[in-house]
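TL;DR need structure tokens for one chain.
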Amino acid sequence: MNKLLAAALGAAIFATPALAEYPERAVTMIVPFAAGGPTDTVTRLVAESMSKDLGQQVVVENVGGAGGTLGAGRVAKADADGYTLLLHHIGMATSASLYRKLAYNPLEDFDYVGLVTDVPMVIVSKPDFEPKDLKELITYVKANADKVNYANAGIGAASHLCGMLFMSAIETKLTAVPYKGTGPALTDLMGGQVDLMCDQTTNTTNQIKEGKIKAYATTTPKRLDALKDVPTAAEAGLANFEVGIWHGVYAPKGTPQAALDKLTASLQKALKDPVVIERFASLGTAPASEADATQAALKTKLETEIARWKPVIEAAGEYAD
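>> reply
TL;DR here they are.
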């Protein structure tokens, strides 16, 4: 018995430093979208702050394509050692219904670190679009459904999801114009080549303030400090149209709990970083609370959102292979 006890104590002594030393090298945080987009912006702010806390660089790598599923798939198949992470938005939930063939299971192939932020959306148009407010916009769109088009950044993108929800809310089908990213979609919107778009405030706030695009309503329960002159959808006459593009950090399934706990604690510290708070505010969003930046909260959010979006996607009939 004494020998067994000694062996157990010896194993514990040798194991403790290994856990305490994580991370011993750089951590890769994959963004499943192109550089320069709203999710990339959020990721780089969080990664920079977490790097300071962890004492190792959190390197951001962009793995875009297929609505975020390529990057997510890479993380699902990565070594579960705490050195490969994924920062993904609401697409983590909607991919389960959007894609008939998905190389991973969002609920079974990942562990959870925590929620990061819930970015509001805003309905915008080309600068010289005729309707003056949201009520006029809805009336105009219904009367000219065959002529009005809306831009999105591709299937699975935030702008695609918000567009589907908008069409569902006003019971009108519009012509979608998909792009390979938010940047080119916004460029064409500003140039008048497309009519409408619904996208994250992290990507549209500056253009709205500069008058390059017209804003009709935000998808929030109350007005945003960054866009005080823009009414909420409810204020503008479209009830129950609230949607945010939430972001969370994931790890491959089987990642050691000690590493997950350290990452969650580091994420929580990053979301309290004054620099992160200020930059998020300038983009029209705010960091998740400490209660939401947890493994359990992210798991619950993902499960709830998968159930919420499935009927919307099925009704729209917009799928990807």
